[in-house]
Amino acid sequence: MSTPSPADFAGQHITVAGLGVSGISAARALAGLGAHVTVVDGGDGEKQQAAARELESEQITVRLGDGATLPEGTDLVVTSPGWKPDSPLFAAAAAAGVDVVGDVEIAWRLRGPDAAAWLGVTGTNGKTTTVRMLASILAAEGLHTTAVGNIGTPIIDVVLGQGKDGERPYDVLAVELSSYQLHWAPSLRAHSAVVLNLAPDHLDWHGSMQAYAADKGRIYEGNTVACVYNVADKATEDLVREADVEEGCRAIGFTLGTPGPSQLGVVEGILVDRAFVENRQQQAQELAEISDIAPGSGTPAPHNIANALAAAALARAFGVRPAAVRDGLRAFHPDAHRIQHIAELDGVTYIDDSKATNTHAAEASLAAYEHIVWIAGGLAKGATFDELVQKSAARLRGVVLIGADRALIREALARHAPDVPVVDLDRTDTGAMPEAVREAARLAEPGDTVLLAPACASMDMFVNYNKRGEAFADAVGELTARDH
């Protein structure tokens, strides 16, 4: 089968599902290639109408609300990640024999003969941190690179922008991929890829944990050099075993313990490589010290050490020197709201991990501290909290609950941590955060950590997890003194 080219889209009638960032990017890119593009979106609010007006000024047809059906004569449907596989639009496409793909698939098809290699990163948690660490390491090697995909930069824009206006073409791309994006990208074949971890998430979209895991595992299909997996999460290794890869592709593990052959791990505070060395049975290569991971932000949490090892494994698979791993990790600075140190007041440390929007992320966050006053709650998205509370109970000094589904956490605490003081704030307005921080400060003792790791989504109270984290930081800033 011949490699698709931009010219193949000229004259095609393409329907783009969704008016989000990736949908708008795909619509503009395809229209620019000469396709007849219609964008459909079930919403009809002010935001959608504004976006529609802008696209229509560029001769792109837009159908909103009840008009979000399959246009007659559609040759291909390009979907935004959030549209569920059982959407009526896709059922209509299947009935008409029309393929449905995502923007990542289109980007892959448009790469061109001398395209940059893709290093893929997925997992339930840690994707953005890992892909940004990876991009920093690649840049430290002197490679022209960028972090793209689910991280917020539409990958189609990057692929089509290659070498334009005299810009140096990319050598390699660090690509963050969600399970949604992988579901709709059947042709994707990365140079190397990692599944960082697997825990129940987005099951309402995928339908089952098995389907969710299978979509994550798609990132390994056709890998040419390395399939990187988490030694501590057997499900990720199982996905490697099931993948159909190119001959010579290797399984590479990462572990927080001492690495075996074909693994990266940690020995006495040093990140070491026993995978990409000449004699991996007897040799190990020092890569960096744990203190090189986001220096200046304190001792990194265990899950961020794991993220660094995963990024290092992908970089080493691409031929990056050990010194560049160290330099790239030193240059990396975490995004806000991810284990972000806010302040230390009266001997109590305040940490914002608002990005911990599910139980798996919250568990990793709670494991990073010894004595914790935990601020939790929000929209549970169908999650249960018994296992999380059981694993974390010994660390809890107290808990402050906020949000619509806080009762689920309260009940788990009653079952598995009945002696831990709990403050249940019966409110879901944004003003609950200052009260939550004041209550947490009251419960905390010198040496404790007040940790915002909600284990829930934010939309019951805040626009997004960023706003929730900002509210936490503002509330901490308002604390001037405490009365034990």
3D architecture notes:
By secondary structure, the chain is of the alpha/beta class. Helix content is 34%, strand content 20%. It has 17 helices and 20 strands. The protein has helices at residues 21-32, 46-56, 88-95, 103-109, 127-140, 155-160, 179-183, 203-206, 209-217, 234-242, 302-317, 322-331, 359-366, 386-392, 406-416, 432-443, 465-478, and strands at residues 13-17, 36-41, 61-64, 76-79, 99-102, 117-122, 145-149, 172-176, 192-195, 226-230, 250-254, 263-267, 270-273, 285-289, 340-345, 348-352, 372-376, 396-401, 422-424, 449-452. The strands form 3 sheets. A 9-stranded mixed β-sheet has the order 7-8-6-9-10-11-12-13-14, sandwiched between helices. α1 (21-32) links the parallel β1 and β2 (36-41). The radius of gyration is 23 Å and the shape is globular.
